[in-house]
Amino acid sequence: MRLFQKVWIVITCILALLLQTTSFFKEKLNSVIYERELYTNYLSIIKDTKQFHYDPELKFRAKPATNSYSQKLLLDANRDVITPGKENATIVMLVRNWELDQALQSMRSLEDRFNKKYRYPWTFLNDVPFDEEFIEATTLMASGTTEYGLIPSEDWDRPSWINETEFEQSIKEMTENKVLYGDSKSYRNMCRFNSGFFFKQKLLQKYEWYFRVEPSVEYYCDFNYDPFEVMRLNKKKYGFIISIHEYEETIPTLYDTVMDFIEENPQYLHPNNSMDFITDMDSLSNMHIRLDLSNDYNLCHYWSNFEIGNMDFFRSEPYQKFFEYLDKKGGFYYERWGDAPVHTLGVTLLMDKSEIHYFEDIGYFHAPFGNCPSSNALRLTKRCVCDADAESTIDIEEHSCLPRWWKVGGKTFLKDKGVF
């Protein structure tokens, strides 16, 4: 190869190397410039963000042509703070050993939503001794203390003065007619016990307030307050959450028997009673239930599987005389009187209607019905997990008696009175 050809090849290689190096440095330089531009933009954004002042009041300002809440969302800043309850109260569950799983389900729900903050004691009642498995599991589930009571036979079993022939005939007829629990003897014992004996139990004598809990129930929302304290401060004695119509075939003579008692003992009828709630037959716009009944009772009752109440009312002379009168008539066995209508008739006639409270803000479910707060703001602040439009939500359905209660007791809530 000639000399000049070798020189040309060397020069060409050097030029190619220079061009490649230049391209590399040019790309690197462009990359650095780009990164600096990104950093400059980032600093600009941070600067603008620091200059923005968030005004929490703005979110409550009404927007044009929209519906908006004028009331602020009341966030519970202390929702996880433990503040042991100060009221003389207990949570009561009437339960069998074989219902342990259902009992734990209810306990877990109420503990998570309410009692883990207040640690009120649990009282369990049974007509047979609780076994070790039940005691161990429920003790560990409870945040407060637990006690286990054996119901005396005289408070639970069928009284000796009940006519067995008439009783068995009633069982036969209700079974043939497929009346709900019409074939159950133990269910009748339970209804009689809850109507007139639960508050007499030895373990409950030291308490003033009770919160009744059933197995297999669920609480949808946080309790942002102590309901026992709220009821005391507001001079309430009986709290409910669901009100529906009773099956007429289970209580055909109950109302007439109650009216006989009032006629014989007019001194016990409270002057500010809520009789209108149980006798109102007016048609409501959303109701199509026939109310052509055999007497003046519209069958409305407080669903007693949820109750928060003052046991001193049930221990009072008016209610004691009221229950004794009903008990002697034998309707708990010759028919199938439930404790829910018995409690309802006693409360509406013997108690001041201003002492009855509807807990509209507590979401609750007991198959097949439930309650879910209608206010979206309330559901959010109380961390509710429920659908206000679900089929199970009974609040204003045609088989609900709540609208009738609002006509009598008014539609005012404790939070509106500023006492929480």
UniProtKB/TrEMBL annotation:
Residues 1-23 form the signal peptide. GO terms for molecular function: GDP-Man:Man(3)GlcNAc(2)-PP-Dol alpha-1,2-mannosyltransferase activity. The keyword Magnesium does not apply. One of its GO terms (cellular component) is membrane. Gene3D superfamilies: Spore Coat Polysaccharide Biosynthesis Protein SpsA, Chain A. It is an enzyme of class 2 (transferase). The keyword Signal applies. It is found in: Membrane. The active site is at E307 (nucleophile). Its main location: membrane. Keywords: Glycosyltransferase, Signal, Signal-anchor, Transferase, Transmembrane. Pfam families: Glyco_transf_15. Its EC number is 2.4.1.131. It is a single-pass type II membrane protein. It comes from the Eukaryota. One of its GO terms (biological process) is protein N-linked glycosylation. Belongs to the glycosyltransferase 15 family. PANTHER family: ALPHA-1,2 MANNOSYLTRANSFERASE KTR1 (PTHR31121), MANNOSYLTRANSFERASE KTR2-RELATED (PTHR31121:SF10). This is Mannosyltransferase. The gene is KTR2.
